[in-house]
Amino acid sequence: MGADEILVVVNPVAGGGRARRARPLLEDYLLCHGVRADFVESKSGEDVRAQAAMAADAGYRTVAALGGDGAFHHVLEATFGRDVTLGFFPAGNGNDIAEALELPKDPIAAAHIFLTVLARPIDVLRAEFRDGSSAVLIGAGGMGLDAEAARLANGRFRRWPGVTRYLAGALWALREFRPLEVEVDLETDVGAARWQGRVILAAVANAPCYGSGFRIAPDATVDDGWLNVLLVEALPWTRVLEAIPILLRNGDLRWPEIHRYRARRVRIASDRPALVHGDGELLGESPVEFRMLPGAVRVIAPAHS
To answer: Do the Cβ atoms of 201 and 142 come closer than 8 Å?
Structure first.
């Protein structure tokens, strides 16, 4: 591969500076294996998108992110629909997307995978919002308490490490959070379905985890053509606290207040506009419709085991 083929967009602040420290090591590792990639540091999420889009325009065949889930998400959005293969060198705090792609959470170990496996098709979720805007995501997202937790994790608690950012965000939001009245329309694996009720969160997943390790959809895979929907009815705060260690351990919650579906499409409307997040980023407001786009992107990642 030549330098004109690979661009690595670096989020230098990811992982508390871990990505910046990993950059020279990654450059040396690739050079030692006969691969010289171009590297560029980003200044913001918008800059990640701009750099990735310019790379696609300039003819780079592979655009990779060195950073966290957010950096990979921005690269995905900037290059979606283009003839570009994606790569990911995880160096963030959570790295939920790396786990979904079965990539090592060490960027140099991920570089070994990058050099030794072929790209494979991965499913993508397209979200369409109340104002006509849209987004694509590869991991998981939703609305309700989890979106408020993501907002606080990226704001008030952004300097906290790993999963503690989301835990702190969820507990802070829980103090004043009011459940949402939702109407959910789905195209499931057994036909059309509708659900109505009060929820503390409505999550949609193409991958098992979000929020740095919360296993909301433990059976989800990024290449099966299905999205996983999780609806959690209004619960007292004591039950929420009881659920947290289970979600961090294996996600095996089988409570009557929890409803799970597999679907190709889901539309969620709420009694008031609610933030919607995905891949660790705030994407828009409800109502929102998610559609599964099977095999819509190519990512250099191991074949599903």
So the answer is: yes
**Residue 302 DSSP one-character state:** P
pLDDT, tens digit (0-9, with 9 covering 90-100), for 26-76: 999 999 999 989 999 999 989 999 999 999 999 999 999 999 999 999 999
Q: Cα separation of 202 and 194, whole Å?
A: 14
Tokens coding 195: 């659900």
* E strand intervals along the chain: 6-10, 38-41, 62-67, 85-90, 119-129, 134-137, 140-144, 180-188, 191-205, 209-210, 214-215, 227-233, 258-270, 275-278, 281-285, 288-300
In this predicted model, what pLDDT tens digit does every residue of 194-204 receive, in sequence order? 999 999 999 99
| Rounded Cα gap, residues 95 and 211, in angstroms | 9
Do residues 72 and 279 touch, judged by C-beta distance below 8 A?
yes
Strand partners, 89: 66
Q: Which amino acid is at 238?
A: T
CB atoms within 10 A of CB 144: 26
Query: Could you please report the per-residue DSSP string of 111-147?
Result: HHHHHHS-EEEEEEEEEEETTS-EEEESSEEEEEHHH
Q: What average pLDDT does range 173-192 have in this prediction?
A: 92
Note the pLDDT tens digit of each residue in 186-222: 999 888 999 999 999 999 999 999 887 789 999 999 9
State the pLDDT at residue 230: 95
β-pair type (85-90, 62-67): parallel
Question: Chain centroid to CA 81: how far?
Answer: 18
Q: Which two tokens stand for residue 111?
A: 């570089």
First-residue to last-residue Cα distance in the chain:
27
